[in-house]
Amino acid sequence: IIMHILEPDDHSIALAHHVLRAPPSFIFPRFAFAFRAQLCRLLLGPGLADALHLPNHPLYSPSRLCVVGIQLACQTYSIFLDLPLIGSILLSLHTRLASHLLLLSSKKRKSKINKGNALQSDCPMSFS
């Protein structure tokens, strides 16, 4: 990975585009690549993003507007977290939400594992 960052080549470009074209998990699959490319441009900077041939979309493209919206939401959230009363309330809500989502995802994982174990016991090639 370090060599891809220090000296981007054709393989680096192919790798970056392959990762950015992964199936989207959000509501706008049409803009998934463009959205991810804009996020990468923001994180990597223009030099490395240009070396990886990541597209730079026009100012008012949906992907750029989403990235700017997320950036503004994060900045606003961090400003609110610095306020004494509002910050403690937001932090409490954030912690509860995160623990609830973690609990839900662990339940889903356990059900997938149990389903996989049930399928394995039916398999004539299993070692159990």
Task: Describe the protein in words.
The chain is mainly α and 128 residues long. Helix 3 crosses helix 5. The radius of gyration is 21 Å and the shape is extended. The protein contains 6 helices and no strands.
Keywords:
mainly alpha; 128 residues; extended; 6 helices
Stretches where pLDDT falls below 50 for ≥5 residues? none
How far apart, in Å, are the first and last alpha carbons? 40 Å
> How much of the sequence is in beta strands?
under 5%
- Enumerate how many helices there are, as a single number: 6
Output the structural class: mainly alpha
Give a short account of the largest sheet. Answer: none
The number of distinct β-strands equals 0
| Net shape | extended
H/E element sequence: HHHHHH
Share in helix:
over 70%
Radius of gyration: 21 Å
Mean of all residue-level pLDDT scores:
80
Kindly summarize this structure in a few lines.
74% of the residues lie in helices and 0% in strands. It is built from six helices and no strands. The protein has helices at 2-6, 10-20, 32-44, 46-51, 62-82, 84-122.
